[in-house]
Write a structure and sequence with these properties.
The protein is 67% helix and 2% strand. The protein is mainly α. A two-stranded antiparallel ribbon has the order 1-2. The N and C termini lie far apart (49 Å). The chain binds 3-hydroxybutanoyl-coenzyme A (3HC). It comes from Microbacterium pumilum.
Length: 340
């Protein structure tokens, strides 16, 4: 354990001049020691500005992804093939909303407000995961999203449970538990379809063909073109590089695809014994960057829907703010009455 007095260097008294510089050095040393010792950085701890900014960037993008990610599946709630499937899908979409809320709360501990983050999203200035800019034309897409998208999310997010920033790592523990259910329900939808009619099997395979490559893109650009990875790994926010996680994901998919009886749509996919990794075809990176630039198949629809939902919810925010104001007024007058 690092002694608590080490942390006190970032306390509220702000000296000026050379003393302040000395204290900054001391605070930096404490921060470095906490990271090296695998200790968590907590909201009240001193942290370098760049660490704070990186976390706000990553956590808010992650939160936006969860919120925008409700749309491709929300789209199927009324059309799910049975009451049971409807109930499961509705619960899953609600889980994603919850994940967004934990993550917005974690980001708020770093000094950004929920309103600021929401504004960045609806103004189209914030990134969210590329994966949610693809359409969901058939019921089998619900299976492919669960299996591939939630599967990729688990691979990427389990290591984030050990992220050096406390509120982020702790939020990820619960998120990952729920994502495991999501992945299994997607697998089960595909398994059911693959045991059905030829048309159902074809529908499952088509959905896998559509989601396989975008799910590999979720891990981000290749390591040699990932500007943030090295620093985020040094700060122990990220624990593995984008390519390492992509490899892990493919290792997980190959045996599961065999059980399902689906083909992964990459003719070059094979285990390379010399390199000790999966050899795969080149990912369509121009497509990935087009989606990031806002020109994916569903980018504008996703943002339009988000803006409309925000506008439609204005009355709820106003009512909640007014209720909070009245509550505060009431407790103040009670307090004043007690004092008088
Ligand atoms: N979609 C959109 N943007 C992406 C992206 C993707 N798939 N992959 C990378 N990017 C962006 C990065 O955000 C970064 O943008 P910025 O510098 O302008 O902010 C840029 O491309 C360069 O990429 P880097 O590899 O340098 O960026 P990172 O080091 O941040 O790594 C990441 C990217 C792996 C996505 C990392 O941020 C991360 O692990 N984030 C947390 C997990 C997350 O956000 N997942 C999103 C999916 S949520 C989800 O799956 C919900 C579930 O319900 C299914």
């Amino acid at each position: 354990m690092i002694a608590p007095d080490l942390r006190s260097v970032g306390g509220p008294v702000e000296p000026q001049g050379p003393v302040a510089l000395e204290r900054d050095d001391e605070a930096q040393a404490t921060f470095d020691a906490l990271i090296a010792a695998e200790q968590r950085i907590e909201p009240r701890d001193w942290m370098p500005d760049a660490y704070r900014k990186t976390l706000i960037r990553q956590i808010s993008q992650h939160a936006h992804s969860e919120i925008i990610g409700m749309q491709p599946e929300g789209n199927w709630i009324t059309r799910a093939p049975s009451l049971k499937r409807k109930a499961i899908l509705m619960a899953k979409v609600q889980d994603e909303a919850g994940h967004g809320l934990y993550l917005y709360s974690a980001a708020q501990t770093l000094g950004i407000t929920r309103d600021e983050m929401t504004q960045q999203l609806i103004d189209g200035k914030a990134k969210y995961s590329s994966i949610f800019n693809y359409p969901t034309p058939t019921w089998a897409d619900m299976g492919a999203i669960g299996w591939l998208v939630d599967g990729a999310a688990i691979c990427n997010q389990v290591p984030l449970c050990r992220a050096s920033y406390g509120p982020y790592g702790r939020a990820m523990v619960r998120v990952c538990k729920e994502e495991s259910f999501h992945q299994r329900q997607g697998f089960e939808i595909l398994l059911t379809l693959m045991q059905g009619t030829p048309a159902q099997r074809q529908m499952a395979q088509d959905a896998v063909n559509r989601w396989y490559w975008p799910s590999l893109m979720m891990f981000g650009p290749p390591d040699d073109s990932s500007p943030n990875s090295a620093q985020s790994m040094a700060w122990k926010i990220k624990r593995f590089s984008n390519d390492e996680l992509r490899q892990r994901f493919v290792s997980m998919l190959v045996p599961q695809a065999e059980i399902l009886g689906v083909t992964l749509p990459d003719p070059e996919l094979r285990w390379d014994d010399d390199a000790q990794e999966w050899h795969m075809s080149e990912i369509d990176w121009p497509e990935f960057f087009e989606v990031l630039a806002g020109r994916g198949p569903m980018n504008s629809v996703r943002l339009q829907n988000r803006r409309a939902a925000h506008d439609d919810g204005a009355w709820v925010r106003e009512a909640a703010a007014e209720y909070a104001r009245k509550q505060e007024e009431r407790s103040l007058s009670l307090l004043n009455g007690a004092v008088a």
